[in-house]
Every structure is written in structure tokens, then in C-alpha cells.
Amino acid sequence: MSEVSWQEIDGILKRSHQAFLSYQKVTGKDKASFLEAIAKEIENIGDSLIRTAMEETNLPEARLAGERGRTCNQLRQFAALVMDGSWVEARIDTAIPDRAPLPKPDLRKMMVPLGPVVVFGASNFPFAYSTAGVDTASALAAGCPVVLKAHPAHPRTSDLVADAIVKAAGRTGMPADVFIHVHAAGFETGKALVQHPLTKAVGFTGSFSGGKALYDYATQRPDPIPVFSEMGSINPVFILPGSMQARSEKVAEMYAASITQSVGQFCTNPGLLLSMENNHLDEFKRQLADKMKKVAPATMLHPGIAGNYLKNRQHALAQKGVTLLAESTDMPGQNQAMATLATVKAADFISNPALAEEVFGPYSLLVTASNITELKAAAEKIPGQLTTTIIGEEEELIKYADFIHLVTAKAGRVIINGVPTGVEVCPSMHHGGPFPATTDSRFTSVGTDAIKRFVRPVSFQNFPQALLPVELRNENAYGIWRLLNNSWTRDKVS
Amino acid sequence: MSEVSWQEIDGILKRSHQAFLSYQKVTGKDKASFLEAIAKEIENIGDSLIRTAMEETNLPEARLAGERGRTCNQLRQFAALVMDGSWVEARIDTAIPDRAPLPKPDLRKMMVPLGPVVVFGASNFPFAYSTAGVDTASALAAGCPVVLKAHPAHPRTSDLVADAIVKAAGRTGMPADVFIHVHAAGFETGKALVQHPLTKAVGFTGSFSGGKALYDYATQRPDPIPVFSEMGSINPVFILPGSMQARSEKVAEMYAASITQSVGQFCTNPGLLLSMENNHLDEFKRQLADKMKKVAPATMLHPGIAGNYLKNRQHALAQKGVTLLAESTDMPGQNQAMATLATVKAADFISNPALAEEVFGPYSLLVTASNITELKAAAEKIPGQLTTTIIGEEEELIKYADFIHLVTAKAGRVIINGVPTGVEVCPSMHHGGPFPATTDSRFTSVGTDAIKRFVRPVSFQNFPQALLPVELRNENAYGIWRLLNNSWTRDKVS
Predict the structure, then answer these.
(1) Interface probe, candidates A231, A428, A473, A485, chain B, greatest B C-beta count within 10 A
(2) Are the C-beta atoms of B52 and B160 separated by less than 8 Å?
């Protein structure tokens, strides 16, 4: 795979912009057919898609089959969203011609698509955050064409899915080039795609260094554009003493599984556990350590990620005060990662920012504080996160309500008595958090609200009915929810 | 006025952050009382507020009285918004414990405030975009404390309004420092306020150079924050031939008034008129020129703005192919601006980007194209705008529907047969547009949706009822609209 020349990139974005001129006018119903057709075409590929992805990512069959299901489900959720149509946030304020001192004009507002969106496939989710993943699905749902840069770790998987999208576009009469697939090995192509004047927004899931670089390119353009980089997280879990007493074994079991699920290659992987000294802490440590030892080493997505895991794990274990508590008993093979649990006192954690850095893989650090004051001080040191979790018994949770409120400031999603891994796809999901978890905490990259990243509002003042978008006309032909003169209704304007 | 030291700024943001820790928990009802009290206290200042603003801005009494009314109206609209409570975009997806293969957790999401917001007062709106203007009102409504940097052109006006806010805060039991007023002459203080780690967002209305500099500071912080800079616009107006035939005199009258209203010191001032050659164009030119000549020169906001007007007008008039059509017949006095109308052929406009730059003041450039193709080419050269306007007869508008769609891509608000000046404050208003009109086309700085700039969503997973924000609890105590299992309702969760 070689880099793509600037001429080629220029041609790609010009084609994408041409596609936008027609695609922005496609109705919700037709976009829904397109998205449904993509899901269907992906399913039609059958087993060969799963086999190809297994070869390229080392992920097991069941996980990949599940991820394919989720990907098709996401596409169908966006199809339902645009079919319903209410997502455009229509607002109508009708004219008051005889208002004093000045007449009030007729004003109507709704969301319109931004233009071509560049999406970067992610290495750790070959389906759900890649070629036809949520960035692509939400951009297409919004009315934006997509230029997709395949992740170089799974090019053949990406080709299969890209073909499915192109086939679906053809079958449902979408404009040519509504989806363009680009392969490139290095960073230069990505940079050029983000810097091209016709690119209007960017979606990325991956490392901090990659996501932050794209953000910098985009904000330093002559005309800055939004970049939605989701850059990982250590997803702190606070385990309150009552739960250690009441159910340490169960918590240990739940977390040994969560830390090592998919070889720890989830952006919501719990890389940091925090607790306070208590009579049951040693027992919990032993239980969690025992379970981590029993987890077999497993092959990571690609050699680069496996190499980084060994390096970052070593770096973390070498920090002052850090003790190794457990690692997989079995020896790891090539490109395999051993499950790892380490521990450190809160005082050392507080004074060393390196301990709040992500070790991407099946690694977790247990921080022990002497009391709630020290736990709070440790929590304050944690930068922005996708998630944070609190494990506690019912009365205890109420007692620590202020603390829970404090850690909510750090994250986009707060979980009580669960694990951060497993990101439900639904309207209430927020997958995004304060920097450096993402570059824009105000938007989600999972769930139907992800569509909001690729649109902007436009007000139409004093428009004749025939020139208004259908969504804003009096008749309300789609029967969508609209804020009409300050009241929510699906009625027409009478 | 001197610069504020870094120590002082650090102290200010620390106090603001402290205020946030309590203010974020204040209920919508109590925030509404606060906002209402601000409006009341501003009204209580009485005539001395208008007199002070007249002295500092040279704006006439009627205009300032109107702007004060609008400012209080804005505050009351935000009060009503947070009193109602539905603005938090609550979404609830209840648990499905027996779902296969995995149980579905209970997930609930709503908007929470970002933290301390730095707001820069604007020179051209001493009330509506300044101390208690829409940035302040929307941030306070969202639950964010405000650090307000007064515009140095009207410090005493700002002091009076700041006192009203502080009095209202005290009277309604708001935390100390929920609003902090800062005076400073130069740019260094603004830069430091934006760069302070505890600042979480920025609101600005003013020049391109100022707004873009703040954007650059904010996006180049170690942890970037959102900046909402509204940086002005030339607000192109396309006058179709039919209207020139049917009502040239009326259009000329409407536009002579709009171009020169408040000495052209509106961000929605129509600085660019575009038309096609037709039999009535010369007549329209003559009519508009006659009316512009009759407009008396008037005093601008401050000597700096008056000096820039003369300089920028001269620069524009000196461009290739530009002809002066009319200027105020009366001689301008000190710091006064003469109304100015110039014209240029579309070919010259297309080849010279300088002609699409704003001349802040009562100036407009009439561009004449030979046909619709050339008009389109001229439209393509116009950068992002707050507004664009089309003047046309009914059948003609339908005929040019594609053209109207094309220019919609350039702006945040599109007006048919009206003037861009006069920005209605209502939910359907979008005051914002593609760069360089603003730094973020996805958000408005007028109307209740302006609150969305200062919040982010948080998901609460598997929370006990008592720990959830009131807005997300089953009972729906505030009776707000919520998306409950994919349906909009004000019902409680049963």
C-alpha cells in the first residue's frame, strides 16, 4: 500500500462534493432505504466477511459475529431515525404581522448536512467503528457523503464492507461517490484528507497522538472544521468498601472479565481501579489477582499494538511505588498479551501523571487510598474520560453522593455497579467525554445522537411554502415532532 | 484601565470554579428566579443606564431603550426555558434484564453544564451582546458561572449592568462569584482568561482578528475548549430582476434604511448587494443612490471604529473596477461615517477577494452580473455568512430555487424579501454561520438554543433513583419532555 497523491485526494474530495450536491436533497425515506440496504448487503457477504476479519484482526469468531450484528443494528437504527425524521430539530415561529413596535417575521429552523465527511477506520473494531461503522452510518444518515480511509490493519475486511456500501448505494439509487473508499499506509494521506478545503468534518477513533494530530490539522486550517476524535480512556472504577465486604469475589470476577475482554482492546477498558483501605481490601486483591492469573494470554490485533502493550506495560510497572500483583500464568506466544494487574498507593499515583496514561491492552492498576480525602485527591488527578464507574452498596452510594457528583465531572458516562465495557447502542448512550478522552465532549460517537456531529442549523425567514424544506412546511407531511410557537407537537401549522 | 495580572486572573477563575461547584446544582426554578431578577434589576437602574450608554456609545436613546428591552426579554426567555426544563434533552432507555444474549442496562442521558465561561462584551451592542447579553444569559441558564470582560468602549455601562447582576444573584441566593466582572484595556488579559485551565468555554462577538485569535488560543491549549466567536459578515443580498421591475423604489428604500441603520454597525448589515443586468437596474441604482445621499452622516461607536471605517471604505473604493455611486450629501463631522454605495462588475468581484471583506459601517457594494451563471460564480466566491437574502417575485423565486439552495450553503439564516438587520429572538432563530462568520456554525448566539453551547451530555447507567438528577427520575417531577424508549412524552416512567 502506498500513499495517495495530492492530485488523487483532490479528485476524491471533488467527487465527494459533487455527490453532496445531490445527496443533501435525498429524502429521509430514501436515506433509510440506503442504510437498510447496506446492512442487508453486509449480511449477504456471509461467513467470508467473518473469516477475513478473523485473519486480519486475530479477534475470535463469536466476537466478530456479534460486532457485525451490532454494526447492522446501528445502520438500522439510523435508518429508523431518518425515516421518522424528527431528528432535524424543526422549530417554527409563525409571523405576527401586527406586533408592535415591529412585525414578527415567519421563522423556521432545522438541521442541514455539513458536506463531505472524512472517516478513519479504527483498528480495534473492524466493523462497528470502521468502514460501515457509526461514523459512516451517522454521516450518511445526516446527508453527508463519506470518504473512508481504511485502517491498514484490516484492508481486505474494509474492501468487503466498502463493496457492500457501494452495491447498496447503486441498488437504492444514491448518487455516485456518496461513499469513497481510500487505502493508504501512512499518516500523510490522512493529513491531506483533513486539510482538503472540501472536507467539512472528520470522524476518528484511535490513539491520542493520531486523534490530536488530526484535530490540530483541522483547527489550524484557514477555515477550521470540526473533528470528532475518540482517543481512548482509562475508565476509572471506584470500588467502595461496603462492596468489598459484601461481594468482593463477585466484583473481582466481573472485573477480571472486563479488563481482559477482547484482550483489553476496548476504549472503555477499565485500566484503573481505585479503592480505600479497608478490612476486605487484601482479600479482594487476592481474588482479583487469582482470576487475572487464570486468564490465558491472547493475540492482539496486530504486531504494532502487541509491541506497544509490552512497552507501555513495562513503563507503567517501572514507575515509583508500582507493584505487580498478577499476570497470566501461561506464557504468552508471539503478539500475545498477558493479563496484568498492578497496584500502587494513592500518594504515588497523585504525584505521577504517567500512572494516569492508558496502557492499551489487558492491564489494570489498582490504586489504594487511605481515606476518602485521598481518594478524592486521586480522582482529581484523572483527566477527562469516556466513562467512570462506582461499585458500592445502596446506602453507601447515598453516603458518597457528593463524591459520585465529583467524578461525574470527569466522564461522559457514569456507571453504577456494572462494568464500562459493553456500550449499548441507544438514544440514551453518550460515548464521548472531556478531553483527552475526545476532542469534543459535546458529541457522542455511539447512538443515534451521533448524527448531530455532521449537521448545522439553518433558519429560513419569510419563505414561501414551496421553497421550504418539506420538514418545515405547514402541512407537516412527515408527521415529525416540531417546536411550534414554543410547544412540541406533531400537528400541522393551521 | 490597566491589564490584570496573571495572579489576579488565576484568583478570578478559581473563584468562578468554586461558584460552579454549587451553581451547577441549582434547580431550573431557582436559575429562572435569578435570570428574572437580573432583568428586573436592569430595568430598576432606569434612565441613568440609557444616559450612560448614550455617552459611551453615541447610540441614540430610542435604539438603546429598544436594546435594553430586548436584553431583558432575552433574560426572561432563558428564565422560561430553564423553568420549563425540557431543554436538557432528557433521554431514557429502561432496562431489559432478560434480553438475549445480554441484558440491557438502564441508561438515562441529559445535558450538564461545562463550567466557568468567559464572555467578552461587544462594542456594538452595549446591552444585548455585552454584560448581561445573550452569552451571559445562556451560560447562566445552562448552569455555568460567567467571567465577563467588559468592552473597554463602554466600561461604565458595563459596571451598571454588572452591579445589577450581582445584586440579583444576592437577592436570589446564588453562590458568590457566579458572575465576575473584569475590566482590562488590552488583549493580554483576554488571552490569559481563555488560556486559564479552569475556563471551559468562551463567548465572543466582534472582529475577525479578535475572534480568530481567541479561537487559536483555545484550540491550542493543552486541553482545547470550545470558543463561540461571532466575527461579522457582509450578508449578501441577491436582488432578482422581477423585483427590480415590480418594486425597485420600495426595495431601494428598504435597503437604504437597512444599510445605514445604527450607522451600519450591525453584524447583519447588508454590505453586499448582487444583481443581474436588466432593464430596471439603472433605475434601481439611481433610486438607491438618491436615498443613500439623503442619509445624514452619524457618529460611530468610538473613534477607533470611525477611523477603521474611513480606512476600509477607502481601501474598498480603491479596488479595480469599483465606482462610487453615492455618499451622504452632508459633510461628516468628527467620528462620523457617511453612508456609502459603490458598484462593481461581477467579473472584477470574482477575481478580487478583497471585495468580499467587511467594511464595518454604513457601506454597501452593488455587484452586477451579466447573467445567472455569472451571478452563481460570484456567489461561490463569498465566504461563510451569518445571513443571505433573496429579493424576488413569487414565480421568479420558484424559477431560481436551485440558486436559493446554493446560497443557503453559505449562511446560517436565509431571508426572502426582507432585510437581514433585525434579529428576532425566538427558538427558530439561528444566528451563526459557516466560517469566517463564526468559529462554529453548529451553534447560535441568539435565541434559546444558544444554551446548547455551554453544556455536554452525560449518560447515567444503572443509577438508583435517588442518585439520578431530578430530570431523569421515573416520576418526572418537572413534567418535562423526554425521549422515553424512543417516544417523546411528558409521562413518568411506569
Answers:
(1) A428
(2) yes
